[in-house]
Structures are given as C-alpha cells and as structure tokens.
Amino acid sequence: MSTPAPTSVFDQLHQHEQVVFCHDEPTGLRAIIAIHSTALGPALGGTRFYPYADEQSALADVLELSRGMTYKAAAAGLDLGGGKAVIIGDPALDKSEALLRAYGRFVQTLGGRYVTACDVGTFSPDMDVVARECGPGVVTGRTEEHGGAGDSSVLTAFGVFQGMRAAALRTWGDPTLRGRRVGVAGVGKVGRHLVDLLLEDGADVVVTDVSERALAVVRAAHPEVDVVGGPDGPDGPDGTAALVASDLDVYAPCALGGALDDATVDALRARVVCGAANNQLAHPGIAKRLEDHGVLYAPDYVVNAGGLIQVADEREGFSFPRAQRRASGIYDTTLRIFELAESDGVPPAVAADRVAEHRIAEVSRVRRIWTV
Q1: Model pTM?
Q2: Which are the contacts of 175, defined by CB distance < 8 A and separation ≥ 6?
Q3: Where is each Glutamate/phenylalanine/leucine/valine/L-tryptophan dehydrogenase C-terminal domain found (predicted)?
C-alpha cells in the first residue's frame, strides 16, 4: 500500500505572507507570529498567551486569527493588515520578564511588518515589557503611563454593543436592547464591560463563565444579573449549553472561538447572535444554518473591531474620544452589511467578507502606483 504524500507546509498557510516560529530555550519562549496580509498596511494583531494542547493547535489558531485580523481591519476602514501571535504556555506559570523581552526581540526582527498588542493571557503591562526590546510604533495596547490606550477591551465591548444595537434595529425596528433578554457567555475582559453597557441600556442580562472569579466580579457589581453555571450551579461550571437553550432575545458569545457549531444552532432560541469572540463560526456552513434558523448573525470581526480601532489610534498619539467616535461607526458598518446581505441574498458573514475583500482589492490596486 502506497503512503500518501505529505501535505506541503505552504498548503497549510492559507495565503499567509509570512509565519515565524520563535524559540528561546533559556526563557522557555515558544511563539508563532503569523502575518496574513500587509496589503493595507502593517499587520496588527494581539499576542495570545495560551496553554495549547500541542504545537499544531497553536499553529491552526494563529493562522485563523491572523486571517480574521486582515478582514477586521479592512472592514473597519483601517490602513492596517492582519497578523497575530501566540505564545505557547500557561501565562499564570510561564510568563516572565525575560520571556516577554525575548519575544519582543523576535517582534523587532520583523522591522515593523508586524505590530503587536494585548490578547487572551496578555495585558497592557506585558506590552510595556515587550516594547522595551522594540522600536517605536511596533507595540500597541500599552499602559496609559507609557502613552498607550490601556485596556482595549473597553472599546471592544463598546463596538459589540453598537453592532448589537444595529441588529436590534434590523430585528425589532428599534436600536436599543431595552426590555430584551441578552445572554453573555464569557464575562472576562470584554464580557463584563458589555454587561455594563447592556444594563445601562435597560436590557435584562444573564451570564455564564467557566471562571468563578469572573462571575464573582459581575455578581458584586450587578446583583440583578442572572447567572447560569458556576461551581455550585446545577449545570456545572460551564453553563453555556443551558444559556444557549434558554429564552433569550440575543446571544453574545464572548469567550474563545468556535462557539457556534451545529448543536448550538439547533438549541439556540435567540433571534440575534452578536458577541465579542473571534472566529465564532465552527465551520463556513454555520452562517447559512443560522439564517435558515431565523437568527440574525452580526459578523464577529465587524462588531468586535473596537479594540483594534483603539490600539490602532495609538499610532497617531492616543485620544480616547477620537477612538470612541471611530468605534461608533461599527453601528453603521453593521447596518450596511445587513443591507448588502439582503440585497445580494447571502448571509451577513458572506456579505462582510465581500466588503472587506472589495476594499483590500481596491486599495491594493492603488498601491501599485510607484512613489518615491
């Protein structure tokens, strides 16, 4: 029996421009930086510090996330490309000054083609450490003390809320969540800020999270919020399945990717899905399944672009009011995508891809003009 030919490593890269494997044995650094596209500008994307099961899982994640950043930046109207980095390890155990500085040295070798920021497992103080080994403009999401934007989850949540308002207008004819029951799965960095905004708007909020600490923070700030799951809950630590199957108007996945799979769509009772998680669709067919199920899906990389807008603003000298005004545009962008989806007869996820791809193609053509 013949052995099948091995898949080419380039076939796995999904049109990525560059993938860099970074290893520093003394600090334990094992990282992958993926640059998907620099057609619109330098590839900006956060650094995720996560205990992946294996290196292949880390590679698959960074490739998918960096591609999503290309589309996110394009749809948001930014002159940036898409990139992402992952550091393999448990941030609670493996993160150190030396490791972060070693990582910063690798980022610097890319000469500005990749610009990094915070992500899962990394925070603004970590970016200050990384930046000590990098030139100006290569590290964003820094602390306010160092001229940065601070916590980018603030405008990420704000942008998701704007997208949710657009979905509410499309679904119920009114751009408010007042009186609507919204389920938020994941109340960490972004989810807890989203809960604040929803309650201010008059929504009825129910939350779940695998972290009892995250749930405790929400409980302390908002005793009126319903909680599903937790260590003492009847549904076990992760109450996501129970939340999805409950009587919701809006479901907001705000944890890790792949939240919308076939089983979730079958169980889902909400009419709108709009959340902060990246890469929510478990496979491309989910977009059509949601539409057939009568669910309006606000494409993840469109509505969660507020954080990218926030850290990108640092490159001009950060102004929170200016960044917030730009993030407010997510409302109009989301509405435009819903309208395009209806006119083209495609799911919103497909319409969003078309908007992003059109802008990349148009600007790329202009940039063929040689300048001195």
Answers
A1: 0.89
A2: 165, 166, 168, 169, 331
A3: 150-368
HSE-CB of 159 using CA atoms within 13 angstroms: 33
Instruction: Look at residue 365 in the predicted model and tell me its pLDDT.
Output: 86
Q: Residue 66 burial by CB count (10 A; 0-12/13-18/19+): exposed, middle or buried?
A: buried
Domains 15-66+81-146 and 153-359 are alike in CATH topology: yes
pLDDT average per 10 residues of sequence, the chain (372 residues)? 55 85 98 97 96 95 94 96 98 97 98 94 95 95 90 93 98 98 94 98 96 93 89 59 95 91 95 95 95 96 96 92 96 98 97 96 84 70
In the numeric block, which tokens belong to residue 131? Answer: 């930046």
pLDDT of 237 reads 54
What number does CATH give the domain 15-66+81-146? 3.40.50.10860
Known catalytic residue: 189? no
Domain residue ranges of the chain, discontinuous segments joined by +: 15-66+81-146, 153-359
Choice among 84, 95, 189, 288 that is catalytic:
84
pLDDT score at 7: 65
CATH superfamily of 153-359: NAD(P)-binding Rossmann-like Domain (3.40.50.720)
